[in-house]
Amino acid sequence: MKLKRIITTAIQLRVVALAAATLGVIIALTPANTTTFKQEEVEQNKFIAIAAPLGNGARQLLILEQQSDTQACWSESGSNPVVVEPLLLQFDFTGICGRNTDSNGYSIRMANQDLGLYYRLSIIERDGEFVLVGISDRDRQAPPIEIGRTRGIHSGFSKILLEPGWQFTKRTFQGKTLGHVYLSSSLTPPAGIPTSFAFTDIANNVYAKEIQQAVALGFVAGFSQDNTFRPEVALTREQLVSLVLGALSKVPDANLNLPTEIATKPYPDVETTRWSAVKIGWARDNQIISGYADGTFRPTQTVTRAELMAVLRRAAEFAKSTRRLDTALTLKQPTTAFSDTTGHWAAAIISQMSSYCHVASPPNEVGTAFAPDAETHRSYAAAATVRMLDCVKQEF
């Protein structure tokens, strides 16, 4: 698998309203009063930021981590710029090297504030070198944040030298070190940046950042009447259809062309006047969802975690088909051997989606079980869908 196929540009963030009948309404952005994640110091020589070629002269940020000394993950040569060879492409680097290629794997942190929702990391060419900058997609007046530079141009992989005051750190959550890498600085961030959504009930939720990303993209929402997200509320089957179609609408160049009304019931238990009928019918016709053996859809029944994986796989395949690509999903990581999926109808799907940007993961990211028949909570549905979108983007 060529490295350039797994390096992604960040999905552009846009906030659009959803009907209150689906998953709530979007609330305003305000500064957070609490910090969900913390950071941990790391050995700086164990990490490297790389300007990786994407084609047509463009570059994308790649961060590698030397997790053990078993085998070198990269080599460096020359100067101005320092040329990097990603050696991890030559062996099974599981447990030896870490590789972060998109906004799920890295973000900016300044003065103990996570700016990942407000600034995206981008590499621009300027004055004979590549410069790593943070750029705001929400406020064009917001100043860019300069983080590092290559000090020269090279056609291949080049080392990004961080500016004074910047360093690598690792994200932590409730005392546990996560794989997410911060480009951190103690400098004060630009004034007026809202670093989080003012949900009052996700500060300690492991999916907090992905919930915020999902809301920013506009395919799920919070509840404005009390500024909550209600992360542990179970998702229904019709709500899942609405969520997934909303997410697919964020795929570049996707044109879902949903009709405004439906003439016949898509399923015997889904009336044409039901708020979700058009979406359910369209999703059925495009092989994104299916009903049960008795012909029903059961729109208000809660979604199991296994059903969520089946729908997200079909959604990813549909997204690829809109770009006339092979619909087979390109696996990104080793599969996870869950302890409770053997013999389950969705075992193969769950295994596949665990390798697809960790769309399938343990409840609350803890343990070895997947809990395939447990109900799907809004928090995990949002997080898994964000991961699916990011993984799809990597294949374009």
From TrEMBL:
InterPro entries: Cell_Envelope_Struct_Comp (IPR051465), DUF3747 (IPR022222), SLH_dom (IPR001119). Residues 194-258, 263-326, 333-396 form the SLH domain. It comes from the Bacteria. This is S-layer protein. It comes from Gloeocapsopsis dulcis AAB1 = 1H9. The lineage of its organism: Bacteria, Bacillati, Cyanobacteriota, Cyanophyceae, Oscillatoriophycideae.
